[in-house]
Each structure stands twice: as structure tokens, then as C-alpha cells.
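Section 5: illustrative case.
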């Protein structure tokens, strides 16, 4: 993920539409190849392939709509997606009917609908947790002055529940889904640190890992040593590991000491704004904030069950 400056912000993570590099259409295509190798595809096989392809293209249109700053004409959507006009129009009709898109009949233009812009119920645990976390993030920002984010771990993914921008004109900001490299980010290191060796190796691969800056850790052995330090000291630092001139410091959010974290609190700043000698102080402030969240946010108990299930499936944590 590139670092992009936009209106005095530094974008350090982006939202993507997949985690494996394969689209739903790719998966459907692979399934059809398997059918050709073994037996002729049945009617059910063909219907499933069509459904998968339609889902992939519908999600593509939805992604274009939600990222656009305003109304889009059919021609705009066709240009962005590469779909033919009839297919795009048919899929847009389905999205309008389901509430994922809105059409202005006079202008013949489209916007994302309520279900696309706010897919979660106001009473969904994530929505409630966001409301409960905002006062803690605001308090942290008032103390530290830098961008503070609350990240939730969902399996191997990292979702930003909410964040508060720092006071400086040039401040980091986040998208919903963090795609920064796990081995080069504070939240990623916290996710990796409490994994078993086998799980971590399966997730990252054999190495060497991709280098994003001269300071990126690329050796599995060096990363394992770094993660041991993270577990011992109770916080992770990514100082220009993934992005030049940026540093992030995070502490795990866990229900018991040394337990597998459910998420983390992260501070992001320009490297010269958060020098190494300030790391311990910032970590202590973040730890105090995690205690406030654990004890003061009732919805956290819901996510306690999520992390218990994940831990049981994933196995033991390295000693």
C-alpha cells in the first residue's frame, strides 16, 4: 500500500476488496477448470459459476460507488469497472432494489445506498463499540496530540473501529481495513506476536519478507526475535518499517495479561514527533486507555467470545 498525501493527511492504509489476490470470479473460473478436468459441468455447476461471477461484478460496482465523491452516471461506472453497459445496468438495478444503491431517475445517476454506506445496524456490537471507544480515543489524543486508532483483530484481519486525528497539520489517517504489511506495522506485529510459530509461518510464508523501506524486517529469524521483545515489553513499534518518516506504536488489547489480544490501540505520528525516548511513556498512556476500554466498554464482552473461538482454532502461543 502506497503512502499518499491528501489534504494535509498521510494515508497509511487502504481498503481493498480481497485478501488473497484472487477475485470471486477467479475462484469460479478455477472451479470450472476442475470440472473440465474431471467431468462435464452440470446445470448446478453452471448456475453456481454465473452466480459467483455476478457477485464479483456487483461488488466491483459497489466498490466504485462507495469510493466516488458524488453521483455517477452509468458511463462512469462502465469506465471504472470495464463492464459492458448492459451488464452494469442490470447489476445496478439489483443493487437499487436491495438498497445498496440509489438512482436519480431524472439525472439517471447513481449513489451508494443506505445499506452500502451504513451496512451495520445501529445496535450491532461494532457500532456500539465505536460509540463506547470514542471518548477514550479523544482523551488519548488530548494527552498525546497524535493520531490514535482502535484496531480490532478479526481472524488475521485488522479492522479500524474508529480513530481520532492528531493535532498536527500533517497527520496520519486510516481506512477501515488495514492492509499495511503485518511484519512492518505496529498493529501487525501485535497480531503476529501472540500467534503460534506454525500459524505465523503459514500466514507470512517462508521469507524473506518484502522490504518496504530500508528498515523493514525481512528475515523470519529477526522477526521472531522482534516479536519476542514485543511480548516481553508489552508494546510494538514500527519506526519507518513500512513507510518513510512515519512511526506507529501500539499496545495489545487483551482480557488477561499475556493472553491473545482481541485488538490494539495505536498511535501514529511523524518519526521526529515521537522520538525513541518517548516510546515507553506513550506505551504507558496506551495501556491505561486499554484498561478503560476493557472495564468501561460493555460491548467488549461480546468480542471476548470472538477471540476465544479464534484462539481455540489457532493453537498455542509461543513461550
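Designed sequence:
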Amino acid at each position: 500500500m502506497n503512502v499518499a498525501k491528501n489534504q494535509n493527511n498521510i494515508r497509511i492504509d487502504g481498503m481493498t476488496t480481497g485478501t488473497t489476490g484472487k477475485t470471486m470470479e477467479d475462484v469460479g473460473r478455477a472451479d470450472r477448470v476442475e470440472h473440465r478436468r474431471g467431468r462435464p459441468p452440470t446445470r448446478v455447476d453452471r448456475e453456481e459459476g454465473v452466480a459467483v461471477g455476478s457477485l464479483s461484478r456487483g461488488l466491483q460496482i459497489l466498490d466504485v460507488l462507495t469510493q466516488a465523491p458524488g453521483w455517477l452516471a452509468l458511463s462512469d461506472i462502465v469506465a471504472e469497472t470495464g463492464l459492458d453497459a448492459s451488464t452494469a445496468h442490470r447489476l445496478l438495478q439489483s443493487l437499487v432494489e436491495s438498497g445498496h444503491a440509489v438512482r436519480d431517475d431524472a439525472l439517471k445517476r447513481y449513489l451508494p445506498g443506505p445499506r452500502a454506506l451504513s451496512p451495520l445496524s445501529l445496535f450491532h456490537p461494532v457500532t456500539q463499540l465505536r460509540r463506547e471507544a470514542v471518548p477514550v480515543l479523544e482523551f488519548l489524543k488530548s494527552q498525546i496530540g497524535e493520531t490514535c486508532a482502535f484496531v480490532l483483530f478479526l481472524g488475521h484481519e485488522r479492522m479500524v473501529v474508529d480513530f481520532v486525528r492528531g493535532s498536527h497539520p500533517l497527520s496520519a489517517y486510516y481506512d477501515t481495513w488495514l492492509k499495511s504489511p503485518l511484519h512492518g506495522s505496529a498493529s501487525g506485529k501485535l497480531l503476529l506476536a501472540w500467534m503460534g510459530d506454525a500459524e505465523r509461518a503459514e500466514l507470512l510464508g517462508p521469507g524473506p519478507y518484502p522490504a518496504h523501506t530500508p528498515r523493514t524486517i525481512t528475515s523470519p529469524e529477526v522477526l521472531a526475535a522482534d516479536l519476542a521483545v514485543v511480548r516481553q515489553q508489552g508494546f510494538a513499534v514500527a519506526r519507518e518499517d513500512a513507510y518513510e518518516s512515519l512511526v506507529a506504536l501500539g499496545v495489545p488489547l487483551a482480557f488477561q495479561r499475556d493472553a491473545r489480544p482481541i485488538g490494539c490501540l495505536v498511535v501514529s505520528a511523524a518519526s521526529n514527533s515521537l522520538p525513541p525516548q518517548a516510546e515507553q511513556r506513550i506505551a504507558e498512556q496506551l495501556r491505561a486507555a486499554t484498561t478503560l476500554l476493557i472495564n468501561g466498554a460493555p460491548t467488549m464482552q461480546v468480542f471476548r467470545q470472538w477471540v476465544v473461538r479464534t484462539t481455540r482454532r489457532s493453537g498455542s502461543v509461543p513461550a
